[in-house]
Amino acid sequence: MDILHQYGPALLRGFGYTVLCWALGTVFAMALGLLIALLRHYGPRWLGWIIQVYIEVIRGTPFLVQLFVLYYGGPLIGLRLDALPAGLLGLTIYGSPYFAEIFRAGFRAVPLGQLEAARAIGMAEPAIVRRILLPLSMVSALPALINFSIILTKETVILSIITVPELMYEVSRMSAETFRFVEANLVLALFFWGLVEAISRLGRRFESRVTKHLIERT
Amino acid sequence: MFSIPAFLESLVPLFWAARYTLLISVGGIALGLVIGTLICAARLSRSRFLRNFGALWVSFLRGVPLLVQLLVFYYSLPLIGLDVPAMVAAIVTVGICASAYISEIWRGAINALPPGQAEAAVAIGMTPRDVWGRVILPQAVTMSLPALINELILLVKASSLVSVVGILEITRASQAQAATTFRPLEVYLAAACIYLLINLCLAALGRWLEYRTAV
Questions:
Q1: ipTM summary value
Q2: B20 touches chain A (CB under 8 A)
Q3: In terms of residue numbers, what domain contains B121?
Q4: Could you tell me the pLDDT band of residue A214, with boundaries at 50, 70 and 90?
């Protein structure tokens, strides 16, 4: 009880940072991933190759190493970031290729006739993207998008290694001061289990609601 | 500025450290295959207790970040009297974590087989053992090979987290290197290159297997 009284505020703040990192990281990564997927869809061929290399490199290296390059290596080329912005940028970069691939698969699942019909009635390309391509690709892409967003919740704990003060960081600090490593980490494990289960449930409900309506419209 | 000699110099010791990365990933996937097969068998069994146990196992290990799992196992193994070297603890943790994903890969492959296959085998009088050993498993294993290679790639990347419990694999070795040479950018980029090289090789292997086993 004493421990909770002493460390409660810090843990709560850590949880806040975890949620913040996850939410912002997911939104930014999804936005960057969408941009990459669109550039690949509409851009010239050489841009497609560059994007392919980017995707392979980011997917082929561990998140931790990417964070180290960014946070400890960045200052050498003038990229001087605090832990939190570096962590957010790291999450954004790490997540973007996965999201880009999900969007690309979604785009490919849109029936070609839909796009041809939109062009035939004279819709401008940006309007086609906004009103035909994106909504229709969501039918197949949404489960994968939700799934990867859930995976990103688990990746946020890695930010603790570059001293972002999120929940894992606070728990490590607490266990180092109280020598209760097992209990602290076990509680953290149960907490994340509950969190991930809850988000998955919510995600499935959201998914079935959104796609049902979209499937009816196609 | 970026110094190419420093980059090349750090490649050699990191390559040497890569054997631990490989040992952890390959050991992890081997252990994961064993436990994952058992868990998959539990999830497909008739006993409700075993099915629930399997579901709980998969849900827990997929819901908890690997870093947290590592610390839990690492700190609680000595508590139950198992004083194992850090390396063994790391392989066991990675293997247990992988088992959840591998059991799902098996289950997906077995469920994806057309039910007619097993029914036909039963109809021509095969024993249940033959149905599994000669019809279901060979097809399921071939089908899941690409997914297993994918899992191995994920494990190579996950093994970087093992650096926090002090095993001198690529990431830990690069931390030590960066601390001595004060060239974090070059050293960590070198580490990234080695990981990329390993994973590109694995991905090529996966594509080759997929091509070989394509029906």
A1: 0.83
A2: no
A3: 4-213
A4: low
